């Protein structure tokens, strides 16, 4: 592995030769992967991630996210297709491409019998960072990860959240320009998770492009500017987070009702009203529909609404509509043209 002595993550981004904007941090074209057991994990995936972006890769279990990340980080061999990292082709210039990447894999994979400081310094050494530089960086990264007081402890004794933070700290030791995280906050409580979001935002603000997979849709909504949703080895939707959420044309509400609901519910034209129990109504209505109309109908039927809440996280709604067997049914069945939003 060649040396990586780059001091900062925010190295100048080369401009595309055709003048069509900066070279993507990651460019994947028609990527296919069939494992030895003949599982087709990727069936022609193409996507671009802009430099500086914070990008989410979402998808249900077994969708192909880790396979995609494995290929990009050279842990899994591709069956067909092309991967470029900041314009560097993975097939022809693997070592150069790998020097640009920091990977936080889905499974914890450090030696539990080593100390955090040694894990970081040895990892950097493996990538050619001189020891004196590595020691300085390790202190910096362990402090950022709030693990400095654990630097000399056996890693096995760290809590689950601390181990996850150690994985991020380790990946940052080579000062990668592209940080890829496969479910970095899995199984981590909400407080620690929010702390990790802060760290990731700081890393991104300092110029590192970030791609993450997550099952916490709230996490993607809070952190990421662009996203791709992958299902059964295919991208079913991609684009700026805001544009995708704006496409959701149905909203869901739950109404808590005073007293008991009548046996027959009123009908509201264009919307679907159902009772989830004696005291709760479930409403699905088009986005542009006026809620006053709903309240008028309910009022006439003698139903008094005590409180209301939105039914679900909007990204969750989008996700459910697009993945598994719902893909063809919802109003979001078509792909948004992939035009990644330029990040600030
Ligand atoms: N080494 C392997 N050998 C054979 N099949 C594999 C291998 N790794 C993954 N697969 C299969 O490829 C498909 C995609 O798996 P992958 O791990 O990429 O999904 P994922 O989106 O990361 O899922 P999760 O959210 O559960 O982590 C699955 O059907 C899985 O069983
Ligand atoms: Mg996975």
Automatic annotation (TrEMBL):
Lineage: superkingdom: Bacteria
Location of the ABC transporter domain: 26-257
Entry-linked InterPro entries: AAA+_ATPase, ABC_transporter-like_ATP-bd, ABC_transporter-like_CS, ABC_transporter_ATP-binding, P-loop_NTPase
SMART domains: AAA
Gene3D superfamilies: P-loop containing nucleotide triphosphate hydrolases
UniProt keyword terms in alphabetical order: ATP-binding, Nucleotide-binding, Transport
Gene Ontology molecular-function annotations: ATP binding; ATP hydrolysis activity
Matches recorded under Pfam families: ABC_tran
Protein name stated in the entry: ABC transporter ATP-binding protein
Organism: Lysobacter silvisoli
